[in-house]
Write a structure and sequence with these properties.
Strand content: 5-15%
Distance between the termini: 24 Å
Order of helices and strands: HHEHHHHEEHEEEEHEEHHHHH
Shape: globular
Number of helices: 13
Helix content: 55-70%
Low-confidence stretches: 4-9, 195-220, 231-250
Mean pLDDT: 75
Structural class: mainly alpha
Radius of gyration: 38 Å
C-alpha cells in the first residue's frame, strides 16, 4: 500500500503519479504474492473438485515475464484492475489526515509525542515527530484499510481457467429392437415367420425372380424354443453401418472468469468467508512500515538536506535535490519492502497464517530472505519516477 504522504508534494501530483504507475503496482503485487495466489488456486481446485489454473500461467520468472503474460491473456486494461479502490482510499485518507492536523483534539494528541529538539537532541526529535505522524496516519488508515485490502485482492485476482466436463452422447449408440420389428425385417427379406416359433418356411420372391436356397430349415422343438414373452424381453442390439467409430462420452469445456467481479463482490466474499476481521489482515505490518518510512523521510530531509545542499548553488543545487530525493525514496522503499511483502501476502492468504510474525517465519524458512524482496526493482523504478515528479513540482 503506497504511502499517503509524499514529502514536498500536494494532493494532485501524487494522485496522478499513483494512477500513472498503477500497472507497475499490480506487477509488483504479483511478484510479491504469486506463491499465495498459487496456493489459493490449489485450494479452490480441491474444494470444487476440478482443475482451476491461472490463464496467465503462474509463476512468473521476472517482471518482464509477468507483464507480457498479463497483457497477452488479460489485456492492457487489466493492469489497472481494482485501482479504483486505491484511488478512493488515497483521496479519503489524505482528507482525513488534513482534517486531523487542523483539529484541536488531534493536535493535542500529536503534541504528546513531539519532543524538544534542544532538550532531547536531533534523534529524539526525529523519533517523536515520526511517532506523531504515524499515529495520525494510522488512525485514518484503520478507517480505510479495508479499501487497501480489497484493492490488493482485486489486483492479484487472475483470470481463472477451469475445466468443466459436460456429457456428450455417443454417435454410435446401441439401439434396442423389439421382437416384432425383427419379424417384420425378416418378412421383408423373404422369411415367413409366423407367431408359432416352431414353424418356419421359405417363400418365393417373385419381385426379384429368385428363390432362397432350397435347404431344409432347422425346426426346434417347442421345449427348446423361447416363448414370445422371453423374446420380447430380450433386447437385440445392432449398429448402423453408416455410423462413425465411438467417441469419448465427455467434452472438455473451459470457463474463463475472475473470482471477484468488482469491489462490492470482493467485500461480500471476504466478509462471508473470513468475517469483518478478515478486512484487517496485515494491518500491523503496514503500521510498522509507516513508522519506518516516517523515520527515514524525517531523518534524511531534516538532518541531511542542509548538509548535502549547503555548498550547492544554481544548477548543482537542483541536481543535489534530485539525487537526495531519489536516494531517500529508494532507501525507504527498500527498508519497508519486507513489511510490505508480508502485509500483501497476508491480505490474500486468508487464515493460512496465524499472524504477521508467523507469516514472516514461514516465508523465510521455506523460500529464504530473498522472497521478501521479490519485485523490489519495480519499487526502485517508481522511486526514480517519484523523484523526477517531485523535482518538477517543487
Amino acid at each position: 500500500m503506497p504511502s499517503s504522504s509524499h514529502v514536498g508534494l500536494g494532493l494532485p501530483c501524487p494522485l496522478v503519479f499513483n494512477v500513472a504507475t498503477a500497472p507497475a503496482e499490480r506487477i509488483k503485487l504479483f511478484m510479491q504474492t504469486q506463491d499465495e495466489v498459487i496456493l489459493n488456486l490449489r485450494k479452490e481446485s480441491d474444494l470444487q473438485q476440478r482443475s482451476i489454473i491461472a490463464h496467465a500461467q503462474l509463476p512468473y520468472k521476472d517482471v518482464q515475464d509477468c507483464y507480457q503474460r498479463l497483457v497477452e491473456k488479460e489485456g492492457r486494461k487489466s493492469l489497472w484492475r481494482g485501482y479504483g479502490a486505491e484511488v478512493s482510499r488515497y483521496v479519503l485518507q489524505e482528507g482525513i489526515e488534513r482534517w486531523m492536523r487542523a483539529s484541536h483534539l488531534f493536535q493535542g494528541l500529536r503534541n504528546m509525542f513531539l519532543l524538544n529538539r534542544e532538550k532531547y537532541g536531533a534523534v529524539g526529535w526525529c523519533i517523536g515527530l515520526s511517532i506523531s505522524g504515524t499515529v495520525t496516519q494510522s488512525i485514518a488508515m484503520v478507517a480505510l484499510y479495508p479499501l487497501a485490502l480489497l484493492h490488493t485482492r482485486l489486483a492479484t485476482d487472475v483470470v481463472r481457467k477451469s475445466k468443466k466436463p459436460t456429457p456428450r452422447p455417443k454417435k454410435n449408440q446401441p439401439k434396442e429392437k423389439s421382437t416384432e420389428a425383427v419379424k417384420e425385417q425378416d418378412n421383408e427379406k423373404g422369411y415367413n415367420v409366423s407367431n408359432d416359433s416352431s414353424s418356419i418356411e421359405f417363400v418365393h420372391l417373385e419381385e426379384s425372380g429368385s428363390t432362397l436356397p432350397l435347404e431344409e430349415p432347422t425346426v426346434k422343438n417347442e421345449q427348446e424354443t423361447a416363448t414370445e414373452e422371453e423374446l420380447a424381453s430380450t433386447p437385440i442390439l445392432f449398429n448402423d453401418e453408416d455410423d462413425e467409430e465411438d467417441v469419448d462420452d465427455t467434452e472438455a469445456v473451459y470457463e474463463f472468469d475472475y473470482k471477484y467481479h468488482g469491489i462490492k463482490d470482493a467485500y461480500t466474499q471476504t466478509v462471508a468467508s473470513e468475517g469483518y476481521m478478515g478486512l484487517y489482515r496485515g494491518l500491523s505490518c503496514v503500521i510498522a512500515s509507516t513508522f519506518i518510512s516516517r523515520v527515514g523521510y524525517v531523518t534524511i530531509f531534516n538532518l541531511l538536506t542542509p548538509v548535502l545542499l549547503k555548498s550547492g548553488s544554481g544548477g548543482w543545487a537542483g541536481v543535489g535535490s534530485f539525487v537526495l530525493m531519489f536516494a531517500c525514496t529508494s532507501l525507504v522503499s527498500l527498508a519497508v519492502y519486507p513489511f510490505n511483502t508480508i502485509a500483501h501476502r497476508r491480505m490474500i492468504s486468508g487464515d493460512r497464517y496465524k499472524s504477521s510474525c508467523d507469516a514472516a517465519q514461514h516465508i523465510v524458512e521455506k523460500q529464504g530472505v530473498r522472497a521478501l524482496f521479490q519485485g523490489a526493482e519495480v519499487a526502485l523504478a517508481r522511486s526514480a519516477v517519484l523523484a523526477v515528479i517531485t523535482r518538477l513540482c517543487m
